[in-house]
């Protein structure tokens, strides 16, 4: 039996109408001539892969998708997404037959993968669309303009089973107010585009910008922007915060499982992790590392730890176990009872906790906090 809202101990609530409003605001910002490619990867940054993508197709006019892995793209196809899906990274050679069967769009940057794709396409009597990936400085996936690109162009010319549809690159530091790196990458990208035009590829779909560049670097737009974080309301761009006035789509709640007093000098959690200096009231709440909360957001110096919200008030985390978490509720006004709702991410009364706040406590990125959330919390999708 699948889990239900009633049986769930920790719940990720995905408010899809907010996502729709975010996309409307993003569209107003980028204008009508730039397409949004929704990048469905890393469990949709905690929101699940398929459901948000299907909603964006059905209600937000998203017609193009990308994933990092072929497994994510298969989840989209299984959910009925027949639209183009660009796989941004490499796939195992053993996955090539399925890749061709599913009409996925490939990212190409070397010789071996295009040859394998073309051979399989021949076997299946199909053509495969490909986007050329230029490496302009991230040094992750892709190849440099100049001689390496010239060689790839020759390879692709000899493989009529492959249809070159697009070209893209990925920014290394769109998160900085200093755009030197971004503009250096763009200059290299432009070199590659000119080289492709000279080779006769003059109608390619060109894309470069991610979330940060979509907000802060319109000069990087071209034909499309590739977005994941932004549609969920995470503006990780430099400068003015949340200038598009996006709403966080995701909230995360759980319950109080137990409360108790602990005397000063007694200890809390495994390994005598926390020894309170004062008589402390503890709430045990129903989430933990097994739900994918970043444990780096807690330390033995609880003054540095991140909070949860209980009855509209902040309460400090003490320690996370796999299944339960200890919270200091000594200063929370009113009575905290077993069964009370605890907000891990989201709003309760006048208080709000964002994933960015948790990331700051854990000295990591917002994306790390979101993508770390496991499949254990129940996903509640709000459609209207
Ligand atoms: C993840 C990813 C994106 C989207 O990133 P966001 O900053 O979350 O919008 C775009 N392009 C590539 C290549 C990616 O890996």
TrEMBL record:
Keyword DNA-binding assigned: no
SMART domains to which the protein is assigned, alphabetical: Ala_racemase_C
Domain Alanine racemase C-terminal, first and last residues per copy: 249-382
Gene Ontology MF terms in the entry: alanine racemase activity; pyridoxal phosphate binding
Entries under SUPFAM superfamilies matching the protein: Alanine racemase C-terminal domain-like, PLP-binding barrel
N6-(pyridoxal phosphate)lysine sites (modified residues): 41
The enzyme's E.C. designation: 5.1.1.1
One GO biological process term: D-alanine biosynthetic process
Keyword hit for Ubl conjugation: no
PROSITE patterns per UniProt: ALANINE_RACEMASE
A single Gene Ontology CC term: cytosol
Alphabetical keyword list: Isomerase, Pyridoxal phosphate
Pfam families the record matches: Ala_racemase_C, Ala_racemase_N
TM helices/strands, residue ranges: none
InterPro entries: Ala_racemase (IPR000821), Ala_racemase/Decarboxylase_C (IPR009006), Ala_racemase_C (IPR011079), Ala_racemase_N (IPR001608), Ala_racemase_pyridoxalP-BS (IPR020622), PLP-binding_barrel (IPR029066)
Requisite cofactors: pyridoxal 5'-phosphate
Annotated protein name in UniProt: Alanine racemase
Organism: Candidatus Avoscillospira avicola
Gene that encodes the chain: alr
């Amino acid at each position: 039996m699948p889990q239900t809202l009633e049986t769930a101990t920790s719940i990720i609530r995905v408010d899809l109408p907010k996502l729709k409003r975010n996309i409307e605001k993003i569209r107003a910002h980028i204008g009508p001539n730039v397409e949004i490619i929704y990048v469905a990867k890393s469990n949709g940054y905690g929101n699940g892969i398929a459901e948000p993508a299907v909603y964006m197709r059905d209600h937000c006019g998203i017609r193009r998708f990308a994933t990092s892995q072929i497994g994510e793209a298969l989840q989209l196809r299984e959910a009925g997404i027949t639209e183009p899906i660009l796989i941004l990274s490499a796939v195992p050679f053993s996955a090539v037959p399925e890749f061709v069967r599913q009409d996925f769009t490939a990212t190409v940057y070397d010789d071996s993968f295009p040859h394998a794709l073309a051979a399989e396409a021949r076997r299946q009597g199909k053509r495969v669309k490909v986007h050329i990936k230029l490496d302009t400085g991230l040094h992750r996936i892709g190849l440099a303009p100049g001689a390496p690109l010239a060689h790839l162009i020759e390879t692709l010319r000899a493989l009529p089973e492959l249809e070159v549809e697009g070209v893209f690159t990925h920014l290394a530091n769109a998160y900085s107010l200093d755009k030197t790196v971004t503009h250096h990458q763009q200059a290299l990208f432009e070199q590659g585009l000119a080289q492709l035009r000279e080779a006769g590829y003059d109608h390619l779909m060109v894309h470069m910008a991610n979330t940060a560049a979509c907000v802060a670097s319109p000069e990087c737009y071209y034909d499309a922007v590739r977005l994941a974080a932004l549609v969920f309301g995470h503006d990780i761009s430099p400068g003015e915060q949340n200038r598009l006035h996006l709403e966080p789509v995701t909230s995360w709640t759980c319950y109080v499982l137990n409360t108790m007093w602990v005397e000063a000098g007694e200890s809390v959690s495994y390994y005598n992790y926390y020894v309170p200096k004062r008589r402390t009231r503890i709430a045990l709440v129903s989430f933990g590392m097994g739900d994918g909360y970043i444990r780096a957001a807690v330390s033995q110096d609880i003054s540095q730890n991140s909070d949860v919200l209980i009855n509209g008030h902040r309460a400090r985390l003490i320690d996370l176990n796999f299944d339960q978490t200890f919270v200091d509720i000594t200063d929370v006004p009113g009575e905290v009872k077993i069964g009370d709702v605890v907000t891990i991410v989201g709003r309760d009364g006048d208080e709000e906790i964002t994933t960015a706040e948790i990331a700051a406590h854990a000295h990591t990125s917002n994306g790390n906090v979101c993508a770390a959330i496991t499949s254990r919390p129940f996903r509640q999708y709000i459609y209207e």
